[in-house]
Structures are given as C-alpha cells and as structure tokens.
Fold Transcriptional regulator.
Amino acid sequence: MTTGARSSPVALQVRLHRIEGQVRGISGMVADEKDCIDILTQVAATTRALQAVALLLLDEHLHQCLRQSDPTGRPQEDRVEQASRAIARLVRS
C-alpha cells in the first residue's frame, strides 16, 4: 500500500493493533463466559473500527487511482472502473 500524507502506514498499523487487542479481549470475554450483551457490544465496536480502517484504505486508493497520473497510459474510464470495483468490494463485505 502506498500512502501519502492522507493516512500513513504507521497510523493504520496503530489502528490495526488496537483492533487486534479488541479481538483478543472479546476472545477472553467468551472464555470467561461474560455477559452476551457485553460481548456483542465489543464485537460491534470492533466491527466499526475495521470499517473505519477499510474506509481509510478506500479513500487512499481512490485518491491514488483518480488523481495521480497513470504511468501505463490507461484511459480515465479504466481508473474509474477500478475505483468502482474497490467500492463494490467494500460494500459487499
């Protein structure tokens, strides 16, 4: 992944490490047979955090795809199609 000033790889790694900790916490809650509602609350928070990372990655991809000059000389329509596929992939997940 190539990122500019918009979202640095370090910032994304920090978010992903936080999410990793959340998942470990959920696993511990399940093992300790904590209240189901509390577990679901943590699952929802983790899901939102992953969605935020996905949106950051998509935003970066769109900016690269649509704003940078394409060294391969592909037409603009191809880059728009690539961006559209990335959006569809995120929405389907």
User: Anything to note?
Assistant: The chain has one domain: 9-92.
